[in-house]
Structures are given as C-alpha cells and as structure tokens.
Amino acid sequence: MNRRRAQLDRWTAWSPALLLAALAALTFWLDAQVQAPEPPGNVQMRHDPDLFITRFRAVSFDRTGRVKQSLTAERAEHHPDDESVDFTAPSLVITDPGRPTLSVKAQSGTLSGDRETVVFRGDVEAVRESAAATAGATGGSGPVKLTTDFLRVYPDKGIAETDRPVTIEESRGIIHGVGMTLDNQQRSLKLKSGVRGTMQPESSK
Q1: Which terminus of the chain has a lower count of CB atoms within 10 Å, N or C?
Q2: DSSP string for residues in 188-205
Q3: Rg of the chain over CA atoms, in angstroms?
Q4: Are 107 and 95 spatial neighbours (Cβ–Cβ below 8 Å)?
Q5: Domain ranges, ordered by start, for the chain
Q6: Helices (H), the chain
Q7: DSSP 8-state symbol, 184
Q8: Cα distance between residue 19 and residue 140, in whole Å
Q9: Is 0.85 surpassed by the pTM of this model?
Q10: Tell me: the pLDDT tens digits for 81-105?
Q11: CATH 2.60.450.10 describes domain 48-199
C-alpha cells in the first residue's frame, strides 16, 4: 500500500512538468507544419537555371509598331536568383529608326535582370551599317566591323563598349586598340589606348 502510494505521489509531482513538455512538443510540431521548409544549404545564392528555351527569339517594337530590336540564340537559360538570361550563340540586331543598324553576335552572352544590358563573350563580332544606308541619312562613313572577345551592349542607348583588345575594320583601313566605346546615336567610335593601324584618308569624290 505504501509502495503504491509513493508511486502515485511521484506521478502527481511530475504531472505538471510532463504536461508542459507535451504542450511544448505539440507547439513545435504545429509551427514546423505551418512554416515553409528551409531550403538545404544556401540555395538562394546558387545560380541555377529554372527553365531553358532552344531556338530562342525575342523581338521588341517601338510605339509605331516597327521592329526596334531582335535577339536570337540557339539556347536561352533563365536564372531566378537575379532574373538574368544566359545565351548560347546569341545574335542581337538593333534597328532604331534614324540610326545605323547595329548587329552583334558571339559564342555566348547574358541579358541582365533589368533587361538593360547584354554582355557578349567569345569571338564577338559587331557590324554597324553604313550611315548612308540609314533612311533619311545623307553622306556618312561606310560600314564598320569590330571584333573582340568581350562586348557590353546597352540596346536602348545604342552604346557598345569593351575594355579588351579590339580590332576595327572599315573601308579606310584597320585599327587595333585596347578599350572602345561605340555610340550609335552619335555615330562615334572611340578607342581608349594602345591604338595602332593604318587608315587611308577619305576620298573627296
């Protein structure tokens, strides 16, 4: 009798603590069910694509419905961490009215998440059409071709730039340099350093 009494007293003494432990366990379980599971590791910092498109093509139009820019690629991969898009064999053509057509192609490229910049890498080739070929233009220089291994293009501004070695070819000759800025709106091209090459004077005819 005394033995049973002692056991009952012990259970009575521990019952509040057991009840609190059970409530804590239940609260923890409910909280785990309500909250979304934590991703393993630091997944938010990973630069993994969530979708891809083969034979990618995108076209943008101006307010009048004319084609302003077109971008094609063999493959496009979207990255949700920064909303950027990586391309394989991209080709960009900018056909803004009143400006010479500017086309760029390369082995690979990336469109920034804000859609303001396209970076081209590997065997980059850009061609600016003759200014005289632009509707409404008179005079002006012939087509200009540039080759480099890296080019950053701002399509809406009509600007292309690089800090790498670049070769410029046009009807008057060939120039090599390091670093370049091409402004298609101002129809200007500036080399930054290491400029060398041969240029013939324009014909007066």
Answers
A1: C
A2: EEEEEEEEEEEEPPPP--
A3: 32
A4: no
A5: 1-34, 48-199
A6: 2-34
A7: T
A8: 89
A9: no
A10: 889 999 999 999 999 888 899 999 9
A11: yes
